[in-house]
Design a protein that fits this description.
The structure holds 2 protein chains of 2 kinds. Chain A is built from 15 helices and 13 strands. The model of chain A has no long low-confidence stretch (mean pLDDT 94). Helices cover 42% and strands 23% of the residues of chain A. Chain A starts with a strand and ends in a 10-residue tail after the last strand. Chain A has 2 domains: 216 residues, Cytochrome Bc1 Complex, Chain A, domain 1; 175 residues, Metalloenzyme, LuxS/M16 peptidase-like (Cytochrome Bc1 Complex, Chain A, domain 1), CATH 3.30.830.10. Chain A is of the alpha+beta class. In chain A, a hairpin with a 2-residue loop joins strand 4 and strand 5. By secondary structure, chain B is an alpha+beta fold. Chain B folds into 2 domains: 222 residues, Cytochrome Bc1 Complex, Chain A, domain 1 (2-Layer Sandwich), CATH 3.30.830; 176 residues, 2-Layer Sandwich (Cytochrome Bc1 Complex, Chain A, domain 1). Chain B is built from 15 helices and 14 strands. In chain B, the strands form 3 sheets. A 7-stranded mixed sheet of chain B has the order 1-2-3-9-4-8-7, sandwiched between helices. A 5-stranded mixed sheet of chain B has the order 10-14-11-13-12, with helices on both faces. Chain B starts with a strand and ends with a strand. In chain B, 44% of the residues are buried. The mean pLDDT of chain B is 96. Classes of the chains: A alpha+beta, B alpha+beta.
């Protein structure tokens, strides 16, 4: 894959040329320091833009046009990485040689239409579409408990540190009620003017032509520089473990979520040792936690750990029977102890390395995952996939043992159903 | 070994049947890193009453046994855990059970020969003991509870249960807690010996490999193992009438926003069209009626009857298709009424028809771009239609307005089962 980067002052362009795929993928990220009161607006905007535009003023008309263009995959998401809010828009289209001549340009123009030609009049978004999105977001925010795994994680984080960005939700009902067509449009303009913008393009492209197309597509010309560090630093870890539990009526499986603060990692540890640590402890297939909690003690169907690089957090999640709480916590702590005592054998280390390398290789086979990875490299200042596959091999058991000291259990949270009633289909 | 060129992309499908009856399908793609191999059994949750090998009479087995068996295949007498084996090779291994089939697969980017041989070996070596069967019950119990706590999966299970009177497709794949408690190792061996015979299985390999090498590995491996000659398994035929088990049910769960599922049981006996085409037409019909380009969607949003999107899912049984329309709504009865009305008068205009055709063309290309999607597409086609279509693009281009109009006249949407999930408090 050949790479070119262009600093266009108001935004950066990253071009990746490859003949591996039959598709062309474009991804645009908007990034700024996160403010709690702006989260709901940002997620509102990324939904609203995908539902109408000046020339296609309803969802029906817009979607019909997409179908005429052979259904490019268009999406948006809003996420927080450490101290930053990141809004992403992407389009993946089939290269026109497999559909119809002219489709590439038409699809790019359509993407431009959606992002930069919204249905606005009198300084406000179209009210009809605005109200539809508002109702959908309200229902989604009210239904946060429908997804129990993510809800229990949110609640654990709120117990861990309710004031830090790390526990911010994906939107707030009280903020939603203050959003109107006008102030949302104002916010949209401020995103174009103030956010840091990166554009990524991947496919069998011509560098010169594509750079020109992107420059024609993006009507942004303000220069900006941000200083805030991406990573959330924890000053000190707590001395005592914070324990919390909450009840949801009618829940038959309890959700156990454990949050650990990570303090003082250096660059190599954050990039390479932490992924290995998490993989050995609670990786996807054959981890210490999986063996102990599921296979030996039959307490859970799922148990895993993951880390949030930007937040300096490691999180263990499991679904258990409420009565098994004490035993499950004891077993999980034992495995943390084993990690810090360095009771890790070469096989475990090598498995983790193989696992991480094979994840990188499989990312390289999927256009949308690959372009997201390329975007993450910019966000986290990560190395490219080739370098990562080599560097990961340098991690030693001593490295893993030594970061164990920097990972401390902070909050143990249980979401349970009280005295559970069994639900039966028959 | 036979070769068939995939039209449109010029990929090649290789295919062979071994002496013991095992079918092997290979779809190489040279420019990717990974290989996806799946070993599939034509045995799923709905094959629950049959004449076990060596017996003369049909017997009924506990619901959920195919899924239980899938879990237990990961137990090996030599003590090597397949999870561990694949983790050491940096490969992902997993399995799933559906109503129709059981599949074991790995995705890897190295050690292909070993990984493939081991896939064949561990699935062809059962090892069930009273002790390891008991141990699994706790794990599967947690898995069942996890599905029951999730309102969307519970809704889906429930409407299927109510849609069918006798056909075993009505039961959830994992069974209920009381079903799995009754499972013994003897049951498992009977099911295993009956269905896990090479003549009832097929292997699908997609990704970066040499087909000659793969077929050599598979042949050598299979020739070392002895299998007796086998007749086709006699599965009990169930007479399922066209009417539903229960027309309407309301359930209370811990949700904020009500959810509905509108299930339509469509009799297939008078529909003579090729099933692959039939399903393309049905997909065009239901997406045109309820998708984002539909009048239904636009009106339901305007009248505040629908939150987010209506989703469509399909269940196949011997003589019926069961199609469900699922949605979140705050106005349950009005939305149900609107769905009913929409189904009474079906018209698809030329523009809509041509656009939906384009979507099928591009979706087919997106699939052919992705090693995992190709693999599951081949598996699903073999399970549902009994063959994989190498010129799907041509089938799509040959669908006609006339044929879809004829089909619409033959479709009977009168047998309906509705399930509503209401919030606990109100």
């Amino acid at each position: 894959m050949e790479y070119q980067q262009h600093d266009e002052q108001a935004y950066n362009i990253h071009l990746f040329k490859t003949d591996k795929f039959k598709t062309i993928t474009v991804m645009i990220t908007f990034k700024r320091k996160i403010l709690k009161e702006e989260i709901t607006k940002r997620s509102f905007i990324n939904q609203l833009l995908l539902l109408s535009s000046k020339n296609f003023p309803s969802e029906r008309l817009l979607c019909k046009e997409m179908e005429r263009l052979y259904g490019p995959i268009i999406g948006a998401n809003e996420r927080r990485v450490g101290n930053y809010a990141i809004t992403t828009f992407y389009i993946q289209m089939i290269d026109e040689q497999y559909t119809e001549p002219g489709m590439n340009e038409k699809s790019l123009n359509f993407f431009k239409e959606i992002l930069f030609n919204p249905d606005v009049s009198g300084g406000a978004f179209n009210k009809k579409v605005f109200n539809i999105v508002k109702r959908d977001i309200r229902a989604r925010l009210r239904s946060v408990k429908d997804n129990l795994r993510s809800y229990s994680t949110i609640r654990m984080l709120e117990h861990l540190d309710k004031d830090s960005p790390l526990s911010y939700r994906r939107g707030y009902l009280e903020d939603l009620e203050h959003i109107n067509e006008k102030n949302l449009y104002e916010y949209y303009k401020s995103m174009l003017n103030s956010d840091l913008v990166d554009v990524f393009v991947m496919g069998n492209i011509d560098f010169h032509d594509m750079r020109k197309s992107v420059n024609e597509m993006i009507p942004i010309n303000t220069i900006k520089k941000h200083k805030k560090s991406l990573f959330i630093d924890h000053k000190t870890a707590n001395k005592h473990i914070n324990k919390a539990s909450e009840e949801i009526e009618g829940l038959s499986q309890s959700k156990l979520v454990i949050g650990c603060k990570i303090v003082g990692l250096n660059d190599f540890e954050r990039k390479y040792v932490l992924p290995i640590y998490s993989d050995i402890l609670g990786g996807p297939s054959y981890s210490k936690l999986f063996q102990s909690v599921r296979e030996k003690n039959s307490l859970a169907y799922y148990i895993y750990s993951n880390y949030r690089r930007g937040d300096n957090l490691l999180i263990v999640s499991s679904g258990i029977n409420k009565e098994s709480y004490d035993l499950a916590v004891k077993l999980i702590k034992e495995q943390f102890d084993n990690m810090s005592k360095g009771i890790i054998d070469d096989d475990e280390l090598n498995r983790a390395k193989e696992d991480i390398i094979s994840i990188i290789k499989s990312v390289e086979d999927k256009p949308l995952r690959l372009i997201s990875d390329l975007a993450s490299q910019t966000i986290f200042d990560l190395d490219d996939t080739e370098k990562r596959k080599k560097e990961i091999l340098n991690v030693t058991i001593e490295d893993v043992k030594s970061i164990s000291k920097k990972i401390k259990i902070d909050t143990i949270y249980l979401l349970h159903g009280g005295d559970a009633v069994e639900r039966d289909n028959n | 070994m036979k070769e068939i060129t995939i039209n449109k992309t010029n990929d090649v499908l290789y295919f062979d049947t071994l002496e013991n009856g095992l079918q092997v399908f290979m779809f190489p793609k040279q420019n990717v890193n990974t290989v996806h191999a799946s070993f599939n059994v034509k045995y799923g949750a709905m094959h629950n009453e049959f004449v076990a090998v060596g017996e003369s009479k049909s017997n009924k087995f506990p619901n959920g046994i195919a899924h239980f068996l899938e879990h237990k295949m990961f137990e090996q007498e030599d003590g090597i855990d397949p999870m561990l084996f694949y983790a050491q090779n940096g490969a992902d291994v997993n399995a799933y059970t559906s109503e129709y089939n059981t599949s074991y697969y790995f995705i890897s980017s190295s050690h292909l020969k070993e990984n493939l041989e081991y896939l064949l070996d561990f699935v062809q070596t059962p090892y069930f003991t009273d002790e390891n069967v008991e141990k699994e019950k706790g794990i599967i119990e947690e898995e069942i509870k996890m599905y029951h706590d999730d309102p969307y999966s519970y809704l889906e299970e429930r409407v299927r249960y109510n849609g069918f009177k006798k056909h075993p497709v009505k039961y959830s794949v994992a069974g209920e807690v009381k079903d799995i408690k009754a499972i013994t190792k003897e049951d498992l061996y009977k099911c295993y010996n009956t269905f896990y015979h090479p003549s009832n299985m097929f292997l699908v390999v997609t990704g970066n490999f040499d087909p000659e090498e793969i077929i050599g590995i598979v042949k050598e491996n299979q020739e070392k193992k002895k299998f007796d000659k086998r007749d086709k398994v006699t599965i009990k035929k169930v007479k399922e009438s066209d009417d539903v088990h229960k027309e309407y049910e309301e359930i209370k769960m811990n949700v904020e926003v009500p959810k509905i599922s509108y299930g339509i049981k469509i009799p297939l006996k008078n529909i003579k069209i090729d099933p692959k085409k039939r399903d393309i037409y049905l997909s065009i019909i239901f997406n045109s009626l309820f998708g984002s380009t539909s009048i239904f969607h636009e009106l339901a949003k305007e009248k505040e009857l629908l939150l987010s999107y209506a989703s469509i899912s399909t269940t196949y049984s011997d003589n019926h298709l069961f199609i469900t329309i699922n949605a979140d709504t705050e106005k349950v009865q009005e939305l149900l009424e609107m769905i009913k009305k929409t189904l009474q008068n079906i018209e698809i205009d030329d523009d809509e028809f041509e656009n939906k055709k384009k979507l099928f063309i591009s979706n087919n290309l997106y699939t052919l771009e992705d090693v995992d999607a190709i693999n599951s597409n081949i598996v699903n086609n073999l399970i549902i239609y009994g063959q994989y279509e190498t010129n799907y693009d041509k089938i799509i281009r040959n669908v006609t307005k006339k044929e879809i109009e004829d089909l619409i006249k033959q479709l009977n949407f009168d047998n309906v089962s509705i399930v509503v999930i209401n919030p606990l408090k109100k």
